[in-house]
Amino acid sequence: MKIFETHAHLDFPQFDKDREQLIKKCFNKDIEYILNIGVDKKTCNASIKLAEKYDRIYAAVGFHPHDATDFNAEFIRRKAQHPKVIAIGEIGLDYYRNLSPKDIQKKVFEQQIKIALELNMPIIVHDRDAHEDCYDILSRNNAINVVFHCFSGDEVFAQKVIEKGWFISFTGTVTYKNSNMENIIRLVPEDKFFIETDSPYLSPHPQRGKRNSPLNLQYVIEKISEIRGTTPKNIAELSYINACNFFTLSK
Ligand code: NI
Fold first, then answer.
1. What is the pLDDT of residue 8?
2. What b/e readout covers 145-164, taking b as 16+ CB neighbours within 10 angstroms?
3. Residue 84, C-beta contacts closer than 8 angstroms, at least 6 positions apart
4. What are 31-58's pLDDT values in tens digits?
5. What is the Å distance from ligand 1's center to 195 Cα?
6. In which band, very low, low, confident or very high, does the pLDDT at 157 lie, cut at 50, 70 and 90?
7. Cα separation of 81 and 87, whole Å?
8. For 237, which of 54, 70, 95, 103 is 20 to 30 Å away at the CA?
9. Which residues, chain by chain, have CB under 5 Å from ion ligand 1?
10. What is the pLDDT of residue 141?
11. Residue 91 CA, ligand 1 centroid: distance in Å
12. pLDDT for residue 69
């Protein structure tokens, strides 16, 4: 069984004490690839550093909507061309916390979409309470290779995303009691989803509240397989193949 962790922040300080041991453990436990995600200048650089150190770690670079006011287009364009950088992200809109003004978030999101299209790279979208605006900005720029990371929309929005040919990514939130993801997990075509942890955040049940790590992907896999009425092995494989196709990594 091969597992692709498509969204982690292993450069964050929560991993300072045991980063190396943890990464080793992941690679000994079926995890084939880890995509480490940047959210600002510092974490983009740190993600690339991790990717340079480990063969099977790759990096994504982008300015998170929280950090939109610090956006630097030249920085992203330059870092995106590093051989271990395989996506632009996480980028998007966050109207839940609104840590940057909305108009700046939108402008910076659009500029980064344009860079991704120019470089022919997939886009990892952070969308919190901003479904329609994310959809509109991506659509009007004709973005093709798009994943909604930690999907949080309803079924109608999921259908719209799927009709566009975009992907849906599931985190540990699917294991929560108040999760309303069951129908979305059922309706998503088998070639349009993959999985992630968003470590160190969003630990799945029964680890909720603790630091998350890629090792907890098993809970996400189990929950999805239970809902779709298939085996965990099947879900791990589908997610792996879909993510390899999406990020153009060899299987
Ligand atoms: Ni994230």
1. 98
2. bbbbbbbbbeeebbeebbee
3. 48, 51, 52, 57, 58, 59
4. 999 999 999 999 999 999 999 999 999 9
5. 13
6. very high
7. 10
8. 54
9. 198
10. 98
11. 10
12. 95
What's the confidence (pLDDT) of residue 85? 98
In a 13 Å sphere around the CA of 238, the CA atoms on its Cβ side amount to: 22
What is the pLDDT averaged over residues 101-110?
97
**Global pTM exceeds 0.90:** yes
170, 181 Cβ separation under 8 angstroms: yes
* Angle of CA points 2, 122, 236, to nearest 5°: 20
Per-position DSSP letters for 39-72, written without gaps between them: -SHHHHHHHHHHHHH-TTEEEEE---GGGGGG--
Task: Kindly tell me the sign of the dihedral angle through the C-alpha atoms of 8, 9, 13, 19.
Answer: positive
What are 126-139's pLDDT values in tens digits?
999 999 999 999 99
Distance from residue 197's CA to the centre of ligand 1 (Å):
9
Looking at CATH, the fold of the domain delimited by 3-246 is given as: TIM Barrel (3.20.20)
Alpha-carbon radius of gyration of the chain: 17
Q: Residue ranges per domain, the chain? A: 3-246
CA of 198 to the centre of ligand 1 (A): 5
